[in-house]
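User: Show me a protein chain along with its predicted structure.
Assistant: Here is one chain, sequence first, then structure tokens.
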Amino acid sequence: TLVRVTSREDGRSLDEVLFGAVNRHDRAVAALWHEEVFTVAYNYRHFHGHTLASVSDFGEVISEMLRLCNFVVFRGGSGSKSRRRDVLADLREHMETTPRVIYGLTVDGSQGPVYRMKPGAVLIARACRAPIVLVRTHYTRGLTMHTWDRTQIPLPFTRRLTLASGPYWIAPEADEAACEDFRRHLESELLELTARVAVELEG
């Protein structure tokens, strides 16, 4: 709360691109880096959030934090391959039966490497017939934790900028090779967005 009331923010791109996609298509998958995990709840405060968290102990901490922020949390992720199929079915059913769902996914989590997109967001978007929107938030003042993902914690009296790009679509009939090409393209686009938001905010 202190960060929110003392900081300046520009989230117009998020409103136009991500929430605009939801307004048009009733669903979206938001893809962001794991280092933003502690700011997810604030970015999606205007919507009833939905996300996927790992079954690890850290995933449990994040899950409880998000539930306190009124998120729907599914447990699965890259560290629990045996559960992926069941989780994917749950995600698809939830999106088909719930209006205006945004799945916010940290696409290089939960074990890294940092800034390397896992295939999960593509598979979820394909199964749910949902557009993907890439999201990046950057702060002028914050702490960087000594973790694999370089988790960012914003400080009070900061300037905050969120940029989003998309929507990007994957065909529901796309095969494994097409999904991999799409994943590589999204990873490149999210890296470019990461660089651009820092330049625009600090330049």
